[in-house]
Please model this.
Amino acid sequence: MIQSVGSTVSFTASVYRMVWRWHFYAGLFCLPFIVLLSISGSIYLFRPQIEAWADAPFNHLQLNGAVQSVEAQIAAGLAAVPNSRLKGIEVRDDPTDATRIIAIDPSAAEIRIIVRPDDLTILNVQPVLDQLSMVVRRLHGELLVGTPGAILVELAASWALTMIVTGLYLWWPSRLTNLGGILYPRFGAGGRMVLKDIHGVTGFWLSFMALFMLISGLPWTKVWGDGFRELRRMSRVSTQSPDWTNVPSSEHAVHQNDLALALATWLDAGEQAQGSNRISFDQAIGLARQLHLASPVMISPPIEKRPTWLVKAEPQNRPQGRTVELNAATGAISKDLPFSSKPWIDRIVATGVAAHEGQLFGWPNVALGLVAAAGFLTIALSAMLMWLRRRPAGMLGAPTKLGSVRIHAVAFVIFFFVLGMLLPTFGMSLICVLGFERFVLPFWPDAQQWLGLGSGPAINADAANISG
Model:
């Protein structure tokens, strides 16, 4: 319990109130994002099922004739998108499934073309980024607006770390007489105390899960991810390019790697007339099936910069990924790169992302992700209800300053400065917040009062409840 006598306030009470204020402001900014990311993340947990449902009409077709060669199917598919180039096709186990072709259109966007294997009818043409699962992913990672959205999500994630750490400080019991309100909510307490217990206890149990979610997602962010990739490059841990990207999905098609950009049109009339010293697409796909790789599996033809067939397993459970190169002329394996061959840093990132997406250890991973999302929504709802109950009319309702002990500089050096150095977006936003508070608010009394930055009463009974 916080104690105060007259205008004299203890150092501990001042620290507590300041932490509460930072927690409040961080939560006020983060909670809308938490709601959005929890809902979109819950949907994305079912990406394999969503994509299977969307593709169901194109599987196990009743064929009306013999299956055409893959080259003929590719020709029909590329003709449906003028001036497009082949990137690769998906290896399907069932020959009655429609052929999924990935092409690069003139704007460098990836287009998914689905072709009947018998009469070469075009069943569907769709930008990859317009697939339902990709729309959900873009919403989750960049709010559907590209780089600005990606930076905003990264900023929210950075402030969420502040919210978690300050929340744990507020949760920490000053004295332990029973476990009620610490490890389980006291539902019989009634009123705001129940909301406080639900908020604090749920936050405690989910704090480590939240930290994992935030940290495992950082390599895929824009600003922090750029720095991380540059550090990886400078450390020379591997000459391989990482297979994780921090480029927002809406820009990814424009920033294709050398493989996509270097692809010439696969069906070159002159080359087909002269013949070529390499196995056919049908033969290459047959060899790829024999590898029994985790789906989905993509196969790309030889190109100038890589004169081999590239077979790549790209499952969401990334530790099951594998890349195999086949000799263009014989089909023999010329290079085999399992997940274990990747640099240690790439394996850590990929494993973390697989767990983040709920695909590392099957349905228990999905269930854990759903429980976490439900918990995050509970925290957000309880926080909003507590705020609405406590918020004075005409004010934001932030905790007021307590006492005259000036400890902001100490807290900044110990926590905010260090975190700001580790998270550039957080550091820049923190400078803006502190600059606004220091140089603008002193000349804006009404805003100070609305934000609760004026000195308020030392403490009130309702506010004291937050300390448990």
Observations:
- The first helix runs from residue 11 to 44.
- The longest strand covers residues 85-90.
